[in-house]
Amino acid sequence: MSRPLVLVMGVSGSGKSTVGALLAAALRVPFADADGFHPPANISKMRAGLPLTDEDRWPWLAAIGAWLDAQVVEGGVATCSALKRCYRARLLEGRPSVRLLHLAGEPALIEARQAARQGHFMPASLMASQFAALEPPDDVEGCITLSIAQPPAGIVAAALAALTAGAQGPRNHGQPEDPTMRSNEDNPL
């Protein structure tokens, strides 16, 4: 039986790396941070305060997709901003076992977290472009949307509950009842 395969998405500063690593540890599966898949040119561009284009992102998304493919049996947790539907479509196409987890929060909270970050190549000045590009997942994508207003351990507990609840069903598992999880219709982002 295959292990869970999860893609944690959200804007920069939403906690993808922290939550993804904790979730992978809880599931006892490998973890991959999407930042590690960026070619040097992408990192240089972001450091310079320039948002990436779709053309910049396609090879990066392909590398993340290849990692997901390699983890089908062992399972894994990967992070990726996956802001646009077309990016998520590329990452999910042909990968029915991948569960999508969206970390959502108020822009002011995420901007404060981003501004407090030390040593990351993504400057806080690019936050507006992140929110402008974000196309929140819809019910067709079968996304688990979790609020980042709680501590990381609470987000991971909610993610584990939602993944367990949806383990036997299709990717679109329906509306969660846990108040820390919101349907996409209730999501203000």
Q: What would CATH call the architecture? A: 3-Layer(aba) Sandwich
How large is the share of residues in beta strands? 5-15%
CATH topology category name: Rossmann fold
Average pLDDT works out at 82
Count of alpha and pi helical runs: 7
Identify the CATH class: Alpha Beta
Number of domains: 1
Trace the largest sheet across and list its strands.
Answer: 2-3-1-4-5
Structural class of the helices, strands and pairings? Answer: alpha/beta
Notes on the protein architecture:
There is one protein chain. The protein has 189 residues and is an alpha/beta fold. The protein has a single domain, classed as P-loop containing nucleotide triphosphate hydrolases (Rossmann fold). A 5-stranded parallel β-sheet has the order 2-3-1-4-5, sandwiched between helices. Helix 1 packs across helix 7 and helix 3 packs parallel to helix 4.
List the SSEs and their pairings.
Elements: E1 5-9, H1 16-27, E2 31-32, H2 40-47, H3 54-70, E3 76-79, H4 85-92, E4 98-104, H5 107-116, H6 127-133, E5 144-147, H7 152-165
Parallel strand pairs: 1-3, 1-4, 2-3, 4-5
Helix pairs in contact: 1-7, 3-4
Index terms:
single chain; 189 residues; alpha/beta; Rossmann fold; 5-stranded parallel β-sheet; 7 helices; globular
